[in-house]
Design goal:
The structure holds two protein chains of two kinds. Chain A has 15 helices and 16 strands. Chain A has a nine-stranded mixed sheet with strand order 2-6-7-10-1-11-12-13-14. In chain A, a hairpin with a 2-residue loop joins strand 6 and strand 7. The mean pLDDT of chain A is 92. By secondary structure, chain B is α/β, with parallel strands linked by helices. Chain B has a domain of 259 residues: Amidase signature (AS) enzymes (Alpha-Beta Complex). Chain B has 15 helices and eleven strands. In chain B, strands 1-3-2-4-6-5-10-11-9-7-8 form an eleven-stranded mixed sheet, sandwiched between helices. In chain B, strand 10 and strand 11 form a beta hairpin. The longest helix of chain B is centred in the C-terminal third of the chain and has 25 residues. The model of chain B has no long low-confidence stretch (mean pLDDT 96). Classes of the chains: A alpha+beta, B alpha/beta. At the A-B interface, loops of A face helix 9 and helix 10 of B.
Chain lengths: 477, 486
């Protein structure tokens, strides 16, 4: 390949906001639920029903705008996007076109060449659609409106990214900011964060942008990476063979590792956007905006500085823990109870990370409570349980947030501190392993380890290995 | 006095004085219906059994002293574009031929809470699009004064039912004159309140930014009583306004001394029938004699109101009516291959000609490339019209003029020429574009024996002034006709 190509990428990211109720009615946003149970006349598009904006949606949208350095639109409106599809009960989606809530922002990402700004074109608020379920047996399609009216924001970036790495860095930064704000849990797999990739290629140094395509159905960072690489290759191949890239929407099939065209620009619909007359324009006052600004949480950079002052834990730990709002919250809440920053950090950096990785989970999926982790640490410190048992208990907590004390009690895992019983077991072990005893006495330190292990085994793990060690030494001296 | 000759407020008082009962009132209304409904066709749905059951409940609660308001025990008719839980609500369209709502419109709830008894749902132009009640999928309603004529529209069923004594009062909705014009044609009182005064929750939308529910009734006192009952700040309607001056009956005072009344010259130009002109000016003269200062002025922009209105209302309607698609409720066409053919066939068969015309018009003015030239321009005209009224209300308390250029046309004469029909809305639509309150009450009878109405327009939130002027005029005018015996 002779020519050098540059990839130009812009993203449209949909984020489901963490409100308890929907954007235009009081129905629950809870995930799951029997189909059509979280519904009312408003979110099922019944004749005569009217939308009323959930103020929390506006608060979240503005917070995200402030965190991404956007201008906040002081007079903003909702528009109707008209299109017929059964997942959309009114046959129009309430969204924002003409006066979106946030504009002209940016976030900074770290790249191989240093810090880079990625522009945010706009952020707008809109409602999610329902879900269609095709029933193969009955050959009919059913619709579930539980998701209909769940609040979303769409964050539209400028075409400022040049590689899959930059895209991932942008998404990770965006996700972290939004999680810090508590505005969403941003889970790609569950669809609470969805990214559409707009991509074009051009010859290196060209001033004009190439024709772009939009890629949908990207459910993980890995899929996004692969889709970007695939689409870049596809477009370059087209150009190299003298063909033109067609402006179209494509669907990524991650299992096949390729994309196919969904619809081209020619059959793009006319959405006939116009301001929704059922909703009143939003006037944002300086006072209210100042309140929102004051209510912004401590972001990562500030947290890192504070952690360094407050907690004696390694910089590496600080970096990892503050990289996730969920981890940072867990850390701070647990330390507040048990006052053991290093111990808490160890549990998070070690076992927690290991289990997350093993189970393919994100910190947002963590279920154990700070209180239980603090209790576990206290139980280990007081030698109520030993390290091995603690790990077992922790795994149970990780699965279902069990109370460690109760779990230890039920499973009978408490360390036996009855020296009489231990003494008796030790005598038996010594009697049964004359060779090892001789080895130890002969100077083989290793043999003692074997005897400790045998004792632990006989005690079914419920002993303090330190204590065994000490007593053995005394008995064999 | 015959029971059905009473006004709503008179009837409620008589019930409280034990001169009659709620059940007797409901029965009297249904006797009238039995006598006249077959020829007039005021209703799409009647519920005699439910009304009588409800009448017995209300009677008990009145006797127990729980219901004391001015409308307790009064049989009411509701326009068929307001949702009533468990009762068919069709908008006079085939597409909602089987639609039974799961909830009740806020304004209707307010009436029920006040002890009114719903007897049925009145006929209308399909989805409130029309000025004659002839676009209904369930047959035209006839004018009780002369059955060869239309009752006006779109709230023609409500207006005719009140005029014929087929109910004591009714709710209508007014997007471009749909309460005031049929009131004018049927010789009853009709009022469109300031936009935002009555909740639109449960009103099946035509033009959301213009729609407003209001009373159709026998006199100005009933009008004030109904408006006082249905006005509310409703958190379910974002456009609902919180106001603390809804004690409208307190405005029923006979006094217009010093009140400044403006008569727009633009409303008295060509196209206005001579009889209507004389009658309306005579009404102004009566108010002048009662002490008001009456003068002519130029309102301007009147000619632009009709194109602006039909652009905005149709644009909103084209989107509002998208939900009627055969998927969730209402009519669904049979034998369709796939989703989009089902949409097309359902909507082609379910909607009537006038509704389709406005959906197409509205879709066109919103489409890419035309939005600025039509829809945005219409919004600018709307703003200018509002400004013209602001200027007028800086000088005048009330603006007075006709409600329609003529009295009720004959059946079958209007729909062939929709443009001409649209032009008939000239005196009413600017009021909706500017969000103002307007009332229409009878002021005369033409040579054919058909009623003429006078329209009074107030500034936003000045219903009380409007009611005072209307009440004063009504007293000065004297008894209009044999109520319920037209």
């Amino acid at each position: 390949m002779g020519k050098q190509y540059e990839t130009v990428i812009g993203l449209e990211v949909h984020v489901e906001l963490a409100t308890k109720t929907k954007i235009f009615c009081g129905c629950s946003t809870a995930f799951g639920g029997t189909p059509n149970t979280h519904t009312c006349p408003v979110c099922t598009g019944m004749p005569g029903s009217l939308p009323v904006l959930n103020k929390q949606v506006l608060e979240y949208a503005v917070s995200v705008g402030l965190a991404t350095n956007c201008d906040i639109t002081r007079y903003c409106k909702f528009d109707r996007k008209n299109y017929f599809y059964p997942d959309n009960p009114q046959n129009y989606q309430i969204s924002q076109l003409y006066l979106p809530i946030c504009r002209n922002g940016y976030i900074e990402i770290e790249t191989a060449d240093g810090t880079k700004k990625v522009g945010i074109h706009e952020i707008h608020m809109e409602e999610d659609a329902g879900k269609l379920i095709h029933d193969e047996w009955e050959d009919c399609t059913l619709v579930d409106y539980n998701r209909s009216g769940v609040p979303l924001i769409e964050i539209v970036s400028e075409p400022d990214m040049r590689s899959a790495e930059e895209v991932i860095a942008y998404l990770e930064k965006l996700r972290m900011l939004i999680q810090y704000l508590g505005a969403s849990d941003c889970k790609l797999q569950e669809g609470s964060m969805r990214a559409d990739v707009n991509l074009s290629v051009r010859e290196a140094g060209a001033a004009q942008l190439g024709t772009r395509t939009e890629m949908k159905n990207l459910n993980s960072f890995k899929a996004i990476m692969r889709a970007i690489e695939g689409e870049r290759e596809r477009q370059i191949d087209l150009l190299e063979s003298g063909e033109a890239v067609v402006q179209e929407t494509r669907r990524w099939d991650d299992t096949k590792g390729c994309s196919y065209a969904m619809r081209s620009k020619e059959d793009a619909q006319d959405y006939r956007y116009f301001p929704d007359p059922d909703l009143v324009p939003i006037h944002i006052s300086e006072e209210w905006l100042a309140e929102r600004r004051d209510a912004l949480p401590e972001f990562r950079t500030e947290k890192i500085v504070r952690y360094k002052e407050e907690y004696e834990i390694p910089d590496y730990d600080i970096d990892i823990i503050t990289g996730s709002k969920r981890l940072a919250d867990l850390f701070e809440e647990t330390v507040a109870i048990c006052k053991e920053p290093k111990k808490v950090s160890n549990w998070l950096m070690g076992e927690t990370m290991r289990l997350l990785k093993e189970q393919g989970k994100e910190p947002e999926d963590i279920v154990f409570s700070p209180a239980h982790l603090a209790k576990l640490i206290a139980m280990t410190e007081s030698k109520e349980i030993n390290g091995t048992v603690a790990k077992e208990v922790f795994e149970a907590m990780f699965e279902s947030d069990v109370d460690p004390a109760q779990y230890v009690e039920e499973k009978g895992l408490k360390t036996v501190n009855d020296t009489g019983a231990l003494q008796k077991t030790l005598e038996e072990i010594i009697a049964a392993n004359p060779q090892s005893v001789a080895d130890y006495r002969g100077g083989k330190e290793k043999a003692l380890g074997f005897l400790v292990g045998q004792t632990m085994k006989a005690m079914k793990g419920k002993a303090d290995p330190g204590l065994i060690n000490k007593m053995l030494r005394e008995m064999l001296s | 006095m015959k029971l059905t000759d009473m006004t709503a407020v008179e009837l409620s008082a008589a019930i409280k004085e034990k001169k009659t009962t709620v059940m007797e009132a409901v029965e009297a209304v249904f006797e009238k219906i039995a006598e006249k409904e077959e020829s007039l066709n005021c209703y799409v749905t009647l519920d005699q059994e439910g009304a009588l059951r409800r009448a017995r409940e209300v009677q008990k609660r009145i006797e127990a002293g729980e219901l004391t308001g001015p409308l307790a025990g009064v049989p009411v008719a509701v326009k068929d574009n307001m949702c009533t839980k468990g009762m068919l609500t069709t908008c006079s369209s085939k597409i909602l031929e089987n639609f039974v709502p799961t909830y009740t419109a806020e304004a209707v709830i307010k009436l029920e809470e006040a002890g009114a008894v719903i007897i049925g749902k009145t006929n209308m132009d399909e989805f409130a699009m029309g000025s004659t009640t002839e676009t209904s999928a369930y047959g035209a309603t006839k004018n009780p004064w002369n059955e060869a004529h239309v009752p006006g529209g779109s709230s023609g069923g409500s207006a005719a039912a009140v005029a014929a004594g087929e109910c004591f009062m009714a709710l209508g909705s007014d997007t471009g004159g749909s309460i005031r014009q049929p009131a004018s044609f049927c010789g009853v009182v009709g009022m469109k309140p300031t936009y935002g005064t009555v909740s639109r929750y449960g009103l099946i939308a035509y033009g959301s930014s213009l729609d407003q529910i209001g009373p159709l009734c026998k006199d100005v006192t009933d009008c004030a009583a109904i408006l006082e009952t249905i006005a509310s700040h409703d958190e379910k309607d974002s456009t609902s306004v919180k106001r603390d001056d809804t004690d409208f009956m307190s405005a029923l005072v006979e006094d217009v001394k010093g009140m400044r009344i403006g008569i727009p010259r633009d409303y008295f130009t060509e196209g206005l029938s001579a009889e209507v002109r004389e009658s309306v000016l005579a009404a102004a003269q009566l108010l002048r004699q009662a002490g008001a200062v009456v003068e002519e002025f130029d309102l301007s922009l009147v000619d632009y109101a009709i194109p602006a209105y039909y652009t905005i209302a149709s644009a909103e309607a084209s989107s509002n009516l998208e939900r009627f698609d055969g998927v969730k409720y209402g009519y669904r066409a049979q034998d369709c291959e796939g989703l989009h053919p089902m949409y097309k066939k359902t909507r082609s068969e379910g909607f009537g000609v006038e509704v389709k015309r406005r959906i197409m018009l509205g879709s066109f003015v919103l489409s890419s490339g035309y939005y600025d030239a039509y829809y945005l321009k219409a919004l600018r005209v709307k703003a200018l019209i509002k400004k013209a009224f602001d200027d007028a209300f800086a000088k005048y308390d009330i603006i007075l003029g006709p409600a329609a250029p003529t009295t009720a046309p004959e059946l079958g004469k209007s729909l062939q020429d929709p443009i001409k029909m649209y032009l008939g809305d000239i005196y009413t639509i600017s009021v909706n574009l500017a969000g103002l309150p307007g009332i229409c009450l009878p002021c005369g009878i033409d040579g054919k024996g058909l009623p003429i109405g006078v329209q009074m327009i107030g500034n936003c939130f000045e219903e009380k002034k409007l009611l005072r002027a209307a009440y004063t005029y009504e007293r000065a005018r004297g008894t209009f006709v044999r109520r319920g015996e037209v």
